[in-house]
Write a structure and sequence with these properties.
Mean pLDDT: 83
Shape: elongated
Low-confidence stretches: 1-28
Oligomer: single chain
Radius of gyration: 23 Å
Length: 254
C-alpha cells in the first residue's frame, strides 16, 4: 500500500522538486532490494540549443533513479525521473515584445531562455569489475514551463521581464543519451558520472520555425536511499530461512 501511494504521488503530483525529495527519503528504503537500487541523483547541467546564436546556460538538476539488475549482474536497466531539469540557452538576441515601452527598455539587454521538463531516461547500464560503468539509451521529456527572461540595467536599475513562450514549445521532447561514471567504494555506494543528452525532437512548433534541438551535459552524483536497511532486511530474511530449514520447518516466501 505504501509503495502504491509513493508511485502515484511521484508520477502524478509533480508540484515541487522538494516534495519529491522528501517522499524519496521517507520511502526509499522500501524500494531497495538485492535486485533493485533506488536513490537520489543531482548535480549541474550545461544546456544549449542547436542552430541558435546563443551561449550555453548553467543550472542544476535533481531527481531519483532506479537500477534494475538483469540476469547478468553486470547489466542493469537504469531509469527514474529528473524532476528538476532546466534546459535552454542564454545571451539570445533581443527580439520585439510587440510593446513599444518594453522594446525601448530592453533594446540593449539580454535574453535567457528557461525551459523546464520532467525528464525520464531509459537506459541500459553496464558496470565493469573496476566499478566504472557506461550507459546508453533514450530520454523522454514532458514540458513544464518555458519562458524568456529579459534583463537590462535601465536608468541605473536592474529590470527584468518574463515572457511566457510555453505555447511555442513542443510539449514532448525526446532524444538519445549516453553516459559514464564510477561507483565509489563506500558503505553507501555513491555514484558520480557524466551524461549527455542529444535531442531529436524539434524544439519549436510551426512549420516556419527554425529547426532547433535541446542539448545538455549533466554532471551528477547519486546516493542510494536506505540501501543499508534493505541489505540488513535481506540478510535477516536469509538467516531466518536458513534457521527454519535446519529446524525442518517451512518459511513463508512473502
Amino acid at each position: 500500500m505504501k509503495k502504491s501511494i509513493f508511485f502515484i504521488a511521484l508520477f502524478f503530483s509533480f508540484h515541487t522538486a522538494e516534495s519529491q525529495v522528501i517522499m524519496s527519503l521517507i520511502f526509499g528504503d522500501k524500494l531497495n532490494s538485492p535486485n533493485i537500487e533506488f536513490g537520489l541523483e543531482g548535480g549541474a547541467n550545461f544546456s544549449a540549443i542547436s542552430n541558435l546564436d546563443s551561449d550555453y546556460r548553467r543550472d542544476f538538476n535533481l531527481g531519483f533513479y532506479f537500477d534494475f539488475n538483469l540476469k547478468n549482474p553486470s547489466w542493469m536497466f537504469n531509469t527514474g525521473v529528473i524532476v528538476k531539469s532546466t534546459m535552454g540557452a542564454k545571451d539570445i538576441a533581443v527580439y520585439s515584445l510587440n510593446d513599444e515601452k518594453l522594446d525601448a527598455v530592453f533594446a540593449e539587454g539580454s535574453v535567457k531562455r528557461n525551459i523546464n521538463y520532467f525528464n525520464v531516461p531509459l537506459m541500459i547500464k553496464y558496470k565493469f569489475d573496476n566499478n566504472i560503468y557506461v550507459k546508453a539509451g533514450t530520454q523522454l521529456g514532458l514540458l513544464s514551463t518555458a519562458n524568456d527572461l529579459f534583463r537590462q540595467n535601465y536608468n541605473g536599475e536592474d529590470v527584468e521581464y518574463k515572457n511566457n513562450i510555453r505555447d511555442k514549445i513542443h510539449v514532448v521532447d525526446a532524444g538519445l543519451v549516453i553516459g559514464a561514471g564510477y561507483r565509489i567504494k563506500t558503505k553507501y555506494g555513491m555514484n558520480v558520472g557524466l551524461q549527455y543528452y542529444y535531442g531529436l525532437v524539434p524544439l519549436l512548433k510551426g512549420d516556419d520555425s527554425p529547426t532547433q534541438y535541446n542539448r545538455s551535459l549533466y554532471i551528477t552524483a547519486g546516493l542510494p536511499i536506505g540501501k543499508g536497511k534493505a541489505g540488513k532486511r535481506a540478510a535477516e530474511k536469509t538467516a531466518a530461512e536458513k534457521k527454519a530449514s535446519e529446524e525442518g520447518t517451512s518459511f513463508p516466501k512473502n
